[in-house]
Amino acid sequence: MVGLKEELLKSIWHAFTALDLDRSGKVSKSQLKASGGRPAGGVLSHNLCTVLNVPHDPVALEEHFRDDDEGPVSNQGYMPYLNKFILEKVQGNFDKVEFNRMCWTLCAKKNLSKSPLLISDEDAFKVWVIFNFLSEDKYPLIIVPEEIEYLLKKITEAMGAGWQQEQFDHYKVALNTSREGLSAWELIELIGSGQFSKGMDRQTVSMAISEVFNELILDVLKQGYMLKKGHKRKNWMERWFVLKPNIISYYVSEDLKEKKGDIILDGNCCVEALPDKDGKKCLFLIKCLDKTFEISASDKKKKQEWIQAIQSTVSLLRAGSAPPHKEARQKRKELRQKLQAEQEELERQMRELQAANENKQKELETVRKQLEAAAARAAEEEKKRLQTQLELQDRFSLELEREKMVRQKMEEQVAQKSSELEQYLQRVRELEEMYKQLQEALEDEKQARQDEETVRKLQARLLEEETAKRAELEKWHLQQQQTIQMTEAEKQELENQRMMKEQALQVAMEQLKQLELERKEALEQYEEVKKKLETAAKNTKSWKDKVAHHEGLIRLIEPGSKNPHLITNWGPAAFTEAELEERQRSWKGKKATST
Hints:
The protein folds into four domains: 1-217, no CATH class; 222-322, PH-domain like; 323-410; 423-456. The protein has helices spanning 2-17, 44-51, 58-64, 75-86, 96-111, 121-134, 145-159, 165-178, 184-192, 202-216, 300-319, 324-551, 577-594, and strands at 222-229, 236-244, 247-251, 259-264, 270-274, 283-287, 292-296, 567-568, 571-572. It is built from 13 helices and nine strands. Strand 8 (567-568) and strand 9 (571-572) form a beta hairpin. Helix 1 runs parallel beside helix 5 (96-111) and helix 6 (121-134) packs across helix 9. By secondary structure, the protein is an alpha+beta fold. The longest helix has 228 residues, at 324-551. The strands form two sheets. Strands 4-3-2-1-7-6-5 form a seven-stranded antiparallel beta sheet, with helices on one face. A two-stranded antiparallel sheet has the order 8-9. InterPro entries: EF-hand_SWAP70_N (IPR057836), PH-like_dom_sf (IPR011993), PH_domain (IPR001849), PH_SWAP70 (IPR057837). This is Switch-associated protein 70.
């Protein structure tokens, strides 16, 4: 309903702005309300209620436009009434063409150009309605160059002519330099002037405008003559078919005066081609929920075009999308808004850059002035420095001359003193040489005495060491003889012990072999006894089973072991514990005897 309200407001805006103004520049109250003396063309409010099928409320109208001290009613005062009492009650069950024609009647006479046009008043009306559809949603209403190009292209294509892009580019450049777009009356004058339809007659231009009007305003997606098969008589009749976004209407002829029926389209409908039959060609079928329609096109091309158009319409209904021309208009509008937003952002950035550039220019100018002032101060200081340098050079020149004279005198004195010093140094060197020779002689004598003393001390120390070593060697010799005697006795004793241990070991080995043989014999005896016990156990078990089977459960008394058995790593021992202790005592006695 928001889109419908915007479309209605555009046409009403044209009618409202065309009303007569009073001396204060505002619309007279008598032209807005339903009073007795309404002007030619009808009162605006009354006519709107009539064509929009809205109940008219004279009391609410009179209350809203009550006289007050502010005088006649203004645009701002009429719009609240229009929204509250008329537009909010619109249900969509009205004739859009009749509504637009009423608004056109109120505004055309005052605004339409008096110069002769190549289009009729009816074509001008259609162009005016198309303008309201394509214009921007801001007032005063204008159509931007992009939409003008779109409309002129559609009209040119409908006429079957070629589009002159270069010609429109020149026109667009001239238009952009003066304004943002055209008003409705300027658009009618542009199309009526024939500037973009040269070489075309009035009838061709009129048919092209009507075709574009049917597509954009009446939502006619396709129209044309085809044959339809009747549901009752089954006869074929020629009908004029008009395809809209949710309906296919068929009429007796293309003047649309006598309607024969409608085919309601929804997402469940489908269309499919049929083979030729009953002498009819180019057949296709439209299936709806309640009915099925057989249609015959004039040729295969028309048949394919109608099938594709109906399939596209059903697909849009399933997707819940708007008609192609409305969706395309919305996309163009969104693209323009996006470009406008980008342009505004670019302009904002340019303004920021320009402001930043101006600030930088000011800063550079300030820096330049500071540099100029600094350069002037530096030049002045350089001038003072050069003057001071010249004065210092003159002073240094005089002092340098005096220094040269003083240095010359000093050099003469130095030369004389140098000669005397050289003679003195020569005498000192001779004395130093004599002193060195005396020092060397004294050092030689002192070294000779030290060497003699060292040799004497060394001889005395050697004699003492030789005496000590001789005494130590004699002591070691005595100790060695004693050690040899003791070692011989211990060796004899150890040899006797070793012989005794070897004999004891041989005896133990023989006893171990004897024990091993006895153990093997015991194991063999144990295996034989074990086998006998297993045989006896099996026989006893079978006997017990037989007795238990025949006489019931019987508990047998069996003999137990007299002595506890010994268990070894190889199994049950072959000897009792008493026998093993006796053998152990015998072995210990033999061992004690051998030792």
